[in-house]
């Protein structure tokens, strides 16, 4: 053929790129040459598809690779990701919010393209809440994006972290610092997610809270107003060894409780899930299905 692989029409390369389904194939595609890599940025269909595909990020093996397990493909794929080596990682919208525990440096990292977005540091995160050296940093629990940075620059990042107690803060593109979110709830944040323009979280005592953070086109608010959506008196909040999650599925906001015990080696063993739909209009829970697990199988 005349020219070479690098001379293929950009629109043709974009069409080919958007037919790729496996992460390793996508990476190989971007490594062919500069024009092929540029073609992957012309249309973000692959990014959108991939963030909707359930993936489990496996534990850090202290090397330059991180392994991801696909629930759909039922296979493990190793990705060359030295930026995540020995970093604390919180996934959201196909990106990883990573923190270097030794330096406090924070970034958003795309696990396929390895694109990084620098964030204000952990020290700034602590300072946003007026915390100094007298308060010890514990860990970052969760990071939630309102939208994928691959698709739009109009997004908000909310982090849930522990420094003596449970805390929240947000950052938007263009912000120089983290902004603290004052919390009036009882109990630690156990699950948080973004759903239809608002952030929702549930506490260990059964409180469901909701708040909004305007995008970067709007001046930064001095305070974020939160509303108590619902306070559940369900006995699931009295259970020991229970974990709570807020998950968007099929256009619904689901509240999922995972029940576990640790009969040996102090390892949690899940034995049941209970699922509710959060009615964000009426402010109530609707009980859905219960899933009991037995070994590696599940009974619905």
Automatic annotation (TrEMBL):
Matching Pfam families: Beta-prop_KIB1-4
Domain KIB1-4 beta-propeller: 68-300
InterPro entries membership: F-box-like_dom_sf (IPR036047), F-box_BR-signaling (IPR050942), KIB1-4_b-propeller (IPR005174)
Protein known as: KIB1-4 beta-propeller domain-containing protein
Origin species: Solanum commersonii (Commerson's wild potato)
């Amino acid at each position: 053929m005349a020219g070479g692989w690098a001379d293929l029409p950009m629109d043709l390369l974009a069409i080919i790129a958007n037919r790729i389904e496996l992460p390793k194939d996508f990476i190989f595609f971007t490594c062919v040459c500069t024009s092929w890599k540029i073609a992957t940025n012309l249309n973000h269909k692959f990014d959108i598809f991939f963030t909707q595909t359930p993936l489990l990020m496996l534990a850090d093996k202290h090397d330059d690779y991180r392994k991801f397990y696909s629930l759909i493909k039922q296979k493990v794929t190793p990705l060359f990701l030295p930026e995540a080596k020995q970093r604390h990682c919180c996934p959201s919208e196909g990106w990883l919010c990573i923190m270097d525990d030794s330096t406090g440096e924070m970034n958003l990292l795309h696990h396929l393209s390895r694109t990084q977005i620098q964030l204000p540091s952990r020290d700034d995160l602590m300072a946003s809440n007026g915390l100094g050296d007298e308060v010890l940093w514990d860990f970052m629990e969760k990071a939630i994006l309102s939208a994928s940075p691959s698709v739009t620059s109009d997004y908000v990042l909310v982090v849930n972290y522990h420094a003596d107690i449970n805390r929240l803060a947000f950052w938007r593109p263009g912000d120089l610092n983290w902004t603290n979110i004052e919390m009036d709830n009882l109990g630690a944040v156990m699950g948080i997610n973004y759903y239809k323009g608002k952030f929702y979280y549930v506490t260990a005592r059964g409180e469901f809270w909701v708040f909004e953070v305007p995008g970067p086109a709007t001046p930064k608010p001095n305070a974020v107003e939160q509303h108590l959506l619902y306070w559940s008196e369900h006995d699931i909040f009295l259970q020991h060894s229970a974990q709570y999650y807020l998950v968007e599925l099929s256009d619904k906001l689901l509240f999922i409780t995972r029940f576990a015990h640790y009969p040996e080696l102090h390892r949690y063993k899940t034995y049941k899930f209970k699922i509710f739909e959060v009615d964000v209009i009426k402010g109530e829970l609707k009980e859905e299905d219960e899933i009991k697990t037995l070994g590696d199988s599940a009974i619905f």
